[in-house]
Design brief:
The chain has 18 helices and eight strands. Strand 4 and strand 5 form a beta hairpin. The relative contact order is 0.06.
């Protein structure tokens, strides 16, 4: 019964399930922390791997003692053979940690006599070899990337004073945009046009499936638009469109939430939706304002690229402009109706000055 109760203590190892939460916390800390250099992030990852190796070593140490304790310390177990039965907890832990490290780092010198200890030694050896190769790969990746960090354009930008003096949200936008531009120049501008179409179609595959405009367009026209899209990144609170400015871009939301405001309503746009298209198609000033509610990844279509697409598909663009004009008329009608008085005497009461206004004038 005592052994069964001791085995019930094994349920306390459920606390080890907190490790995934620790991993998520470290990754989230890396994303939101004020770390400016990629080299520092890589060194922190290496330190985190060392920390996890120490945690696994501690677990193996505890299990080495737990296997013998659950059987009541038989006469042929390693604790009795080492005369540690009446020793202190610190001495037992020190000896068990040395035993666990010896089994994980290299083949043990003496073969265990008990079957449970043999299996424990075998598992420790497998874990040790796995930890060694993971640590070796992490070291090679870290120092290999650090040696070529001087040639990395992103690292050069992060090391500059102009970058380091900017706010965190702006630095994140700069890094995201630089990575996109580097990817575009090193991959998209090098491959053939056919392969470039396939790459952009794969990048924008989620957008093409969800967005209503892409569903209504012809396949050839959709591919032409996708080829002209540019990736843009915004942090929460960033202004994407200012009202009464030149409508030189329309935007498609790949991920994130955007708040769009016009004269008579507020509307939240989510993944796969678009905005800024009506003024863009009609060649007018922007009638809306838009700002990012969350971290947003958008695709923008410039007016210059759209004019090139119009030369290839004039009929499709003509239909889009007609649809945009109809939508604008509907919006104006809705706005006009929303401003009408709901009661016939409301307009007269609004024109009649109140006693308070007359008093203030006097």
């Amino acid at each position: 019964m005592v052994r069964i109760l001791m085995f019930a203590r094994f349920l306390s190892m459920i606390r080890l399930l907190r490790v995934p939460k620790l991993l998520r916390f470290c990754f989230a800390l890396e994303n939101v922390s004020d770390i400016r250099l990629e080299e520092v992030k890589k060194i922190l990852r290496l330190l985190f791997v060392l920390f996890m190796m120490a945690v696994i070593w501690h677990w193996d140490t505890c299990i080495q003692y737990f296997v013998a304790a659950i059987e009541g310390f038989p006469l042929d177990c390693w604790i009795v053979n080492s005369n540690l039965t009446h020793s202190s907890i610190g001495e037992k832990y020190r000896y068990a940690s040395f035993r666990a490290l010896k089994q994980m780092s290299w083949p043990f010198l003496e073969f265990p006599t008990r079957l449970e200890e043999q299996w424990m030694a075998l598992i420790s050896m497998v874990i040790g070899f796995f930890m060694f190769f993971v640590f070796l790969a992490c070291v090679i990746t870290t120092f290999g990337s650090l040696s070529g960090a001087g040639k990395n354009k992103v690292s050069q930008i992060q090391s500059s004073f102009l970058f380091s003096s900017r706010p965190l949200a702006l630095r994140q936008r700069i890094i995201a945009d630089c990575k996109w531009q580097i990817y575009k120049k090193s991959v998209l501008d090098v491959v053939s046009e056919r392969l470039r179409k396939d790459i952009m179609a794969d990048i924008c595959s989620n957008l093409v499936k969800i967005n209503a405009l892409f569903k209504s367009w012809d396949t050839r026209f959709s591919r032409a638009v996708v080829m002209c899209l540019e990736a843009e990144f915004f942090s929460p609170g960033d202004v994407i469109i200012e009202k009464d400015t030149a409508a030189d871009h329309m935007f498609f939301i790949d991920s994130g939430h955007v708040l769009v405001e016009d004269d008579h309503q507020l509307k939240e746009k989510n993944d796969g939706e678009h905005f800024g298209d009506i003024s863009f198609l009609l060649g007018e000033r922007q009638q809306i304002s838009a700002r990012a509610l969350t971290t947003c990844s958008l695709f923008s279509l410039s007016l210059q690229d759209f004019e090139m697409i119009e030369k290839q598909f004039p009929q499709v663009v003509k239909e889009m402009r007609e649809t945009a004009a109809e939508m604008k008329e509907q919006d104006l009608e809705v706005s006009w109706r929303s401003r009408l008085p709901s009661h016939p005497h409301q307009a007269a009461s609004e024109r009649r000055p109140s006693l308070e206004s007359v008093f203030l004038k006097e």
